[in-house]
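ok new one. same drill as before - structure tokens go in, u give me an amino acid for every spot. 383 of them this time. try not to just spam alanines like last time pls lmao
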């Protein structure tokens, strides 16, 4: 009898242990939070649905390890269709201003962005070297020397043109040299508040303040002129400072500010470096105006358009022997053609080459593997 009781107790204990093991295994195997290590998270909870109802993300992320011409390369790719209504894609500047530098992860967080890569080239204080337009508002003019990546309702494309800016007043057409740039003698420059709180003038200037196409004031000053939010300031520098008086510009006059070519409403634009691929063929030059020689093995950031119209943003690491050597410009061009890119241009590279996905730095930047503050970037938001 005693032995039977012992057997019964042992059997009950075994059943309890097995039950706990099955419960634990079931939670591990079937938990919705369990994911395969190294696999990209390409699912999205749709608003208004339960947590168990997921949809594929409209943005695809890939991390690829390649050996190209005997050199190991770590490559990070983001792809999406700009015509997908769930995706919002645009440039962003550090602190939403022409000048300055900010971490890419902070720009993402401030804009509520899912992903980002660093943008184009910039001057010493972070001001872009070419055209930037966000949500249809031009912030800096194009140079006519480099390709501009443009996205609108029709999709994505590259164009190269010179921005023609002018002001109309009483049948007079006054050409404006540039937009949101430091003014020099004989310059006429158009400003808005993205340039800062003043025109940062260092030479004599006469400036007109424009509110909703009406001149509200004409200011003659040897120093800076204030820029109020939502208003335009047009500054006539040095020898041109007497031009407003000669033209009879005064408070209350109506003026029209024109920008050509006209690109419509809500477009996005960012001037890039050299074209690497055009019409499905590699067109990599030996040198780029901003990056210099393209024969070095460096970290690189690229933006392109695939044959199916999708936008591709790519970051390849470099300058890290044993991990990722970096590609030459020629190797990058050939690689882009191989993966189905129709047109592509280079962005800033080196230690600035970075990709953020869902709040996380995915690549390993060449400067100690940490983020380097950038002047501008491309962000992707998921609605």
């Amino acid at each position: 009898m005693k032995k039977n009781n012992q057997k019964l107790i042992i059997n009950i204990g075994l059943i309890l242990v097995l039950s706990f093991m099955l419960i634990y295994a079931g939670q591990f195997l079937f938990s919705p939070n369990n994911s395969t290590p190294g696999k990209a998270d390409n699912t999205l909870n749709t608003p208004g649905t339960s947590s168990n109802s997921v949809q594929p993300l409209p943005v695809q992320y890939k991390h690829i390890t390649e050996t190209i011409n005997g050199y190991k390369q770590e490559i990070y790719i983001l792809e999406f269709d700009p015509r997908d209504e769930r995706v919002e894609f645009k440039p962003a500047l550090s602190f939403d201003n022409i000048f300055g530098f900010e971490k890419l992860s902070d720009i993402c967080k401030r804009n509520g962005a899912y992903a980002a890569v660093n943008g184009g080239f910039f001057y010493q204080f972070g001001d872009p070297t070419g055209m930037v337009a966000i949500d249809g508002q031009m912030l800096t003019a194009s140079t006519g020397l480099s390709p501009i990546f443009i996205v609108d309702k029709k999709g994505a494309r590259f164009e190269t043109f010179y921005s023609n800016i002018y002001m109309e007043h009483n049948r007079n057409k006054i050409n404006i040299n540039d937009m949101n740039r430091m003014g020099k003698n004989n310059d006429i420059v158009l400003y808005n508040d993205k340039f800062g709180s003043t025109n940062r003038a260092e030479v004599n200037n006469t400036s007109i303040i424009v509110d909703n196409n009406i001149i509200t004031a004409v200011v003659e000053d040897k120093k800076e002129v204030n820029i109020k939010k939502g208003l335009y300031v047009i500054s006539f520098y040095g020898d041109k400072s007497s031009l407003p008086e000669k033209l009879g510009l005064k408070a209350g006059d109506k003026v029209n500010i024109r920008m050509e070519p006209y690109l419509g409403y809500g477009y996005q634009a960012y001037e890039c470096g050299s074209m690497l691929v055009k019409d499905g063929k590699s067109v990599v030059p030996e040198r780029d105006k901003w990056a210099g020689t393209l024969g070095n093995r460096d970290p690189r950031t690229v933006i392109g358009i695939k044959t199916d119209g999708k936008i591709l943003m790519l970051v390849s690491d470099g300058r890290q022997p044993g991990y990722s050597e970096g590609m030459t410009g020629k190797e990058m061009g050939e690689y882009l053609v191989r993966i189905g890119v129709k047109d592509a241009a280079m962005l800033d590279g080196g230690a600035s080459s970075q990709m953020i996905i869902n709040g996380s730095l995915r690549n390993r930047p060449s400067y100690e593997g940490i983020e380097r503050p950038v002047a501008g970037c491309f962000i992707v938001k998921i609605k």
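The chain has four helices and 29 strands. and btw The helical segments are 2-30, 104-111, 243-247, 329-338.
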